[in-house]
Amino acid sequence: MEQQQSPAKPGARVLVVDDDPTVAEVVSGYLDRAGYVVDRAGDGPDALTRAADHWPDLVVLDLMLPGMDGLEVCRRMRGRGPVPVIMLTARGDEDDRILGLEVGADDYVTKPFSPRELVLRVESVLRRARPAAPPVSGVLRAAGLQVAPAARRATKHGTELALTVREFDLLAFLLRNPGRACTREELMREVWGWDFGDLSTVTVHVRRLRGKVEDDPARPRLIQTVWGVGYRFDPAAEGE
User: What CA–CA distance (Å, rounded) separates 206 from 223?
Assistant: First the structure.
């Protein structure tokens, strides 16, 4: 007998956007049985309309939609307000995955995929977007950055940063581990909560995060690349 998942947020609303009725029905069925409230849309304009009527807690979004593709839908939704997005792509091309991450998707799944794995990823993203209890570490401060995990707010020199769920968690983890070289595998495990996955996901998110916290993203000083290992947060660089 298949074990049901407990939703990270009871009654969370998930919008499933896919023009393939079979995929949409299977995904919606698994999410429904896992305890989520599910809305469905078959194209981009319909997705935007349904999101405006009932703002979702998370969107499962197909990249290859007719007319308005998933990238544009993601951009427009993010223009209206913060919402976690898991992108679906029918192609294994790395460029497609990176494009989805570049516009702010928090995770992606390549078709064909296991519906149970997708439910686990939904649960993981929602759990990190809405933590059940405030972390004991309190507010993190370094190099002009301030991160409040309980409030899910991050600022640089007093100016609020517009971070996705994963970008926020990545920045918080780096601030908790200053001066230490963190491997991509460790970041995938600690930030994404997965012991497996495409490590290019970490690379793209680091690049996006640098674009928001570095004075010159082309010459990063705070988030340093440790060649052959991963990345190191160097708060001392701010004062150099």
Answer: 8
Q: How far apart are CA 39 and CA 17, in angstroms?
A: 9
- Assessment of whether the complete model's pTM goes beyond 0.70: no
Domain ranges of the chain: 13-129, 140-239
pLDDT in tens, 27-86: 999 999 999 999 999 999 999 999 999 999 999 999 888 889 888 998 888 888 778 899
- 211-226 in b/e form (b: 16+ CB < 10 A) is eebbeeeeebbbbeee
- In words, the CATH class of domain 13-129 is alpha beta
Please report which residue ranges of 81-114 form alpha helices under DSSP H.
94-102
Task: Return phi, psi of residue 89, to 5°.
Answer: -135, 140
CA separation for the pair 70, 91 (Å, rounded): 14
